[in-house]
Amino acid sequence: MAEKTFTHEELAKFNGENGQPAYVAVSGTVYDVSGKDAWKGGKHHGNVAGRDLTDILYNKSPHGDKVLKGLPVVGKLV
């Protein structure tokens, strides 16, 4: 099966609201954060699902990319 690709516009639909899953992109990889309590409703400490959070994760987050470990990968951001 071919890997799913997302444009920024397509990714924005997966914002965790109205029954949608919550996806975030980091360094071109799209992760499903729906199962994380911290992302309930598609929001986490002012961040919103459906976006590329690469800059925030690497330059503003206190925990860095270790939080990505174990998250389901759903595709690539193109």
TrEMBL record:
Pfam families: Cyt-b5 (PF00173)
SUPFAM superfamilies from the UniProt entry: Cytochrome b5-like heme/steroid binding domain
Cytochrome b5 heme-binding domain mapped to chain residues: 6-78
Protein name: Cytochrome B5
Organism, as annotated: Limosilactobacillus avistercoris
Lineage: Bacteria, Bacillati, Bacillota, Bacilli, Lactobacillales
